[in-house]
Amino acid sequence: MGRSRQISSSGLWASLTGWGKTRLGSLMCIAVALHGGRAWWVAPSYPVSAVGWRGIRQLARQIPDTDIRHVDRIITMPSGGTVQVRSADNPDSLRGEGLDFVVLDECAFIKEAAWTEALRPALSDRQGRALFISTPKGRNWFWRHWQRGYDGSDGEWKSWRFPTSSNPYIPVSEIEAAKNSLPDRIFRQEYLAEFIDDAGGVFRGVMDAATAEEQTQATPGHAYVMGVDWGKYNDFTVLAMVDATNGEVVAVDRFNQIDWAIQTGRLKALYERFMPDTIIAERNSMGDPLVEQLIGDGLPVMAFTTTNASKAQIIDGLALAFERKDIKILADPVLVSELQAFEAQRLPSGMLRYSAPDGMHDDTVMALAMAWHGLARGGFIWGLA
């Protein structure tokens, strides 16, 4: 029981980049190692662990006679103590090592099994301690442990929450700009350090928005925008047509495993039905020659290059449209399921990477996001009542 109580003397942070939590964790790891102890820094993946490694390495370089092994990401102090940076993408790889201290960085994105089945038993061997630091991700296992210290029900745990607004080095104008440009869910999680119930999903109110009716042709006086996400074998090509006059999705065409000539033929057929002012089409890989061909055929195509940054921009815009109830979609089962399953993961840079869960597709999401991006960029909807 004594060991369990010692292990539970843990700090749990729900914080954000720029608040010094990485610096604090690095200092604590170095302090343990200087006294001959064994400390680990554990992150959700190897790339994310680079953040902790940089901070620990910079501190260790200031200590004479310290051995820094970059390949293994392990630092040995003159005392014999060590700090090692590890990845939790395979929890079983963390088993079997006795530890005095461990930092779980962005632990809301780490599998709970890494803590319960590997790291906690390793701390038990030496009556060690743990520090959890993370941005929230819904009310998962990190939230449950964080609650133990925050509500005072368990004296062996201590928890803190630091929203960006409490950081004196970040201008208020920057926070206000983020609030005005991001979906409410993203802002509350990333800037206010709140545990949001539906934080695993990107789009809110999908079913409430699924009230649009499919149309076979354009409504006189209405303007349209088409989004195109290309695919051929494993992925699907999706054409999404949005009525720019009222923000309603009026047609979605989804297909794969057919020749490019047939795909462009289906696109032209949909174009002729609605005559959109703009077609936003992905140009990555096989999309580039198709875009050039369509432009040569006289279609109003604008090429879109998908990167992590550009994808985040159009996804945030689409999420904001759902948040503000600006958009109505078809009750198409594939479209609805892909929107509901779409998720965000944190990158080492601090940015979010948007994608479908493993084994699922996001083709309808991307086509719709591109169409909405073209609609908003063209200024079609801002005059709506």
Automatic annotation (TrEMBL):
| Gene3D superfamilies with a match to the protein in the record | 3.30.420.240, P-loop containing nucleotide triphosphate hydrolases
Which InterPro entries does the UniProt record give? Answer: P-loop_NTPase, Terminase_6C
One matching Pfam family is: Terminase_6N
Its keywords, alphabetically, are:
Viral release from host cell
Q: Where is the Terminase large subunit gp17-like C-terminal domain?
A: 226-372
Presence of keyword Nucleotidyltransferase: no
Name this polypeptide is given: Putative terminase
**The organism of origin for this protein:** viral metagenome
